[in-house]
Amino acid sequence: MLHPLPDIMLEPLVRAGLLEDLGRAGDLTTDAVIGEGDTIVRAAFVARQDGVIAGLDMARLSFALMDRRITFTPKLRDGGRVGPGDVLATVEGPARGILSGERVGLNFLSHLSGIATATAAVADLVRPYRARITCTRKTMPGLRAIQKYAVRAGGGSNHRFGLDDAILIKDNHLAFAGGVRPAVERARAAAGHLVRIELEVDTLDQLREGLEVGGVDVFLLDNMPPDTLREAVKLVDGRAITEASGGITPDTVTAVAQAGVDLISLGWLTHTVRVMDIGLDYQP
Fold this sequence. Notes:
Layout: H1 7-22, H2 28-33, E1 40-47, E2 51-52, H3 56-64, E3 71-74, E4 81-82, E5 87-94, H4 95-126, E6 132-134, H5 144-153, E7 167-169, H6 171-177, H7 180-190, E8 197-201, H8 204-213, E9 218-222, H9 226-236, E10 241-245, H10 253-258, E11 263-265, H11 268-271, E12 278-282
Parallel strand pairs: 6-11, 7-8, 8-9, 9-10, 10-11
Antiparallel strand pairs: 1-5, 1-12, 2-4, 3-5
Helix pairs in contact: 1-3, 1-4, 3-4, 4-5, 7-8, 8-9
């Protein structure tokens, strides 16, 4: 089950977006065109394409922060699949607040739904296999929590959230430490009892050395073709979690999953995002 993020985490992001948009003088267009008074209008968020929704709470807050009198009514929950013409939510209230909050709400909703949609597409491809799709730390600064939430909405899982979640020994760590053995041994000596250790390996020889040293919970199998991945999974033989990463696309993800890895991490889910086409349509 997808649990929503609490408003206390989301509101600062939405507030920052609104303040950026309103700038130093507010909404000049709405102030000029709508004028004074509380004109009450109704509008609907409508999908323009197939996709998976994420970010409805961000859209809700973009109106609530502009005018608490605006009513936001979702028609589905984050993680729901939609098609062209489907109504995601409606808003009703003073026109000024709706017009001023529209773009920020749409930006968050379209961006996060784009991540959820891309995640769902690759998760569907690997569903027959044991592999799970996961994201990385390649997120936009300040947006990591909500981008990773969108991955979960699309049926994916989350990698570590930051440098303090787990120990991940990468290629530069190995180079600076002097190799696999010293790096793993130092990590194992420093890790708390709840901290997992993951080791990135580029070759089967590195993998064998990591297995020999012991104490590695997860092996990140970087940029390995499917045949090499299959051999790596056999070498690990259930003694650790296996994660494939590096240049994996929708065209290659099925072959990677067929190799028997536990996880497939895809940085492009969050760093190369194609927004989902969603509009806010006025309803007379």
